[in-house]
Design goal:
The chain has about 140 residues and is α+β, with helices and mostly antiparallel strands. It has 5 helices and 7 strands; from the N terminus they run βαβββααβββαα. Helices cover about 35% and strands about 30% of the residues. The strands form 2 sheets. Strands 1, 2, 3, 4 and 5 form a 5-stranded antiparallel beta sheet that branches. Strands 6-7 form a two-stranded antiparallel ribbon. The longest helix has 14 residues. The protein is globular and about 45 Å long. Its EC number is 2.7.6.3.
Length: about 140
């Protein structure tokens, strides 16, 4: 099996945000993935919804043997396990969340399915906090 280079963005705006981000990375690693690089923490205002809770965000490069859909399933399971109740892809709206994990790139492929679009264009080009976090990763 080959290793796939993946860039993830993680965010949290509830509870101990930095601990939530580290816990998510630990769970990704414990599932057999290599955490190769992690950015510094960056705080940002919520995007696409109103909240008084500020986000703490990081970017990470991981190496995985999983396919894009298998990785998506893993990160969605981690989100639920950590207490996330609403998935914006399902509900169509954004809310406060303990953890949010997005696949930004997966190798250099383009992948589109009902559940997943790679690359994640909003993070690559539209969101300022994403561009700041990803500047040394892309």
């Amino acid at each position: 099996m080959s290793q796939h280079k993946v860039i993830l963005l993680l965010g949290s705006n509830l509870g101990d945000q930095k601990k939530n981000l580290q816990t998510a990375l630990d769970k990704i690693k414990d599932a057999g993935n290599e955490i190769f690089k992690v950015s510094d923490f960056l705080t940002s205002e919520p995007v696409e919804f109103a909240s008084s809770n500020i986000f703490c965000n990081i970017a990470s490069i991981i190496f995985t043997h999983l396919s894009p859909v298998q990785l998506l399933t893993l990160i969605k399971d981690i989100e639920v396990e950590m207490g996330r109740t609403d998935d914006s892809a399902v509900t169509g709206g954004h809310t406060d969340r303990v953890i949010d994990i997005d696949i930004v790139t997966f190798n250099k492929i383009k992948f589109i399915s009902e559940r997943l679009k790679i690359p994640h264009q909003k993070h690559l080009s539209e969101r300022e906090f994403s561009r700041i976090l990803l500047k040394d990763f892309i």
